[in-house]
């Protein structure tokens, strides 16, 4: 039979503080349906409705106020216990492994709120990041879907999808395509491409499939994992895929691909034996806040983001 857990008490307290299940879910790093399910579980266990839905938001019922009082007491006692334990049990630094991302600094800063000593390892290959995660060399990881990922054994690891990100395209600001609002992938059939080296390109098969669907095989002429070199090559006339929050400037423009033919899933993972064990939802919230911080770098992506909540359901 189900029993009340700390996460249930935390859910009740957060809903009361936010006055909204939706806002509480965002704060906790959960989806609204997931938090609603937790609330229904608590209500079944205590035998009654905890909140009235009013025009002004969620208001605790009489039973809700009693449960809320107990929840606050228990959570405060637990926070005190954990604080005391952390002072006497130095669990060491928190190791982060991630691919090269535009929101790296905000992510590190957010994780410092969970563990003051954060040490980061950046790699170009998502597969290498997952290797490090499985081996315990990093505790928290952020990486993209890569060919072969479904076969990985991620036992002991909490994995959550951060976002499904559409690929944008980078072209020279002198390219005629720069004048278009969006670009059809087929228009790039005769262009020279810049890509990471094959061993670093996790979605290689997805890229070839998208190009095949557009009727061509891409001419992979230049290979570099260094972003400034890639941008220089694009400014000189080559083309490349670009992360959605990439910024126009320095001789290149970022354009949306018509029909979003290529989507990339980005994941956040936390080891259950890490210094942030039991706090995977807080790690996810750090990653979500960091990602939000770069949305406005590309106004076209911001528009797409606002119009496609299904690509980032955990953010709503």
Give the strand content.
15-25%
Main β-sheet, in a few words? 5 strands, mixed
Q: Helix share of residues?
A: 25-40%
Which consecutive residue ranges, at least 5 long each, have pLDDT under 50? none
How many angstroms separate the termini? 31 Å
Question: On the 0-100 scale, what is the average pLDDT?
Answer: 89
Shape verdict: elongated
- The number of helical segments is 10
- Write out the strand line-up for the largest beta sheet, numbering strands in chain order: 4-3-5-13-6
Summing up helix and strand content along with how strands pair, one would put the structural category as alpha/beta
Count of strand segments:
13
Secondary-structure element pattern, one letter each: HHHEEHEHEHEEEEEHEHEEEHH
**Backbone CA Rg:** 23 Å
What does this structure look like?
The chain is α/β, with parallel strands linked by helices. It is built from ten helices and 13 strands. The chain has a five-stranded mixed sheet, with helices on both faces. A four-stranded mixed sheet has the order 8-12-7-11. Helix 5 links the parallel strand 3 and strand 4. 35% of the residues are buried. The mean pLDDT is 89.
